[in-house]
Amino acid sequence: MDVRIEESWQRALAEEFNKPYFKDLATAVREAYVRGQVYPPPTQLFAAFAACPLPQTKVVILGQDPYHGPGQAHGLAFSVPTTVTPPPSLQNIYKEIESDTGITTKSSGSLEHWATQGVLLLNTTLTVSQGQPGSHRTFGWETFTDAVITTISDQREHVVFLLWGSHARSKTRLIDQNKHLVLEAPHPSPLSAHRGFFGCRHFSRANAYLQAHGEEGIKW
């Protein structure tokens, strides 16, 4: 199957694209775009992979599914275009970065500057219908994104996985913790951030680990 995705990911996931489940997934996604408004736009479906090739991946941040409001989702988990006000979860991420590192983050909600430094901002479901969170979770996306996580675990070394919330934390089973660092915390949503996301210090801990293994830290 011809999937338009960044070249290094194309090579690494080539077998996945030819599996029966992925053909069914592709059909379901195409039909959803035809039926109604789906986010992100088709051209940004694999934006996280385009911005962060596999050989450059140093950090993985897992989201659940894309933002389901107009103009918000652009293919990067937790991120929104520069013209969009940062959503509450992202505002809490910025608060933790400032508390943890002392760095005041920019007001923009776009995290593209993280992605180009090697942060894969991966939603476990890559599409959603407008106003319907979780609407595409039965399509088969998680089989695909589980394969992405496993590929990173197998082919890379010393990657930091930031797993926030029970859904993301369930992916720990896919990661070889002898090779990588897994940091877990509650989700940064206003409903749960005060239960342990605030104070987790994941951003400084991630950079300390990267630097200890000869990698440049992320400029959060």
Question: What is this entry, summarized?
Answer:
By secondary structure, the protein is an alpha/beta fold. Helices cover 36% and strands 11% of the residues. Strands 3-2-5-6 form a 4-stranded parallel β-sheet. Strands 1-4 form a two-stranded antiparallel ribbon.
Walk me through the structure.
The chain is an alpha/beta fold. It is 36% helix and 11% strand. The protein contains nine helices and six strands. A four-stranded parallel sheet has the order 3-2-5-6. Helix 8 links the parallel strand 5 and strand 6. The N and C termini lie far apart (37 Å).
Overall form: globular
Strand content: 5-15%
Low-confidence stretches: none
Radius of gyration: 17 Å
Coarse structural class: alpha/beta
Number of helices: 9
Question: Could you tell me the mean pLDDT?
Answer: 96
Outline the biggest β-sheet. Answer: 4 strands, parallel
Oligomer: single chain
- The helicity comes to 25-40%
Distance between the termini: 37 Å
Which strand order spans the largest sheet, edge to edge or round the barrel? Answer: 3-2-5-6
How many strand units?
A: 6
Order of helices and strands: HHHEHEHHEEHEHEH
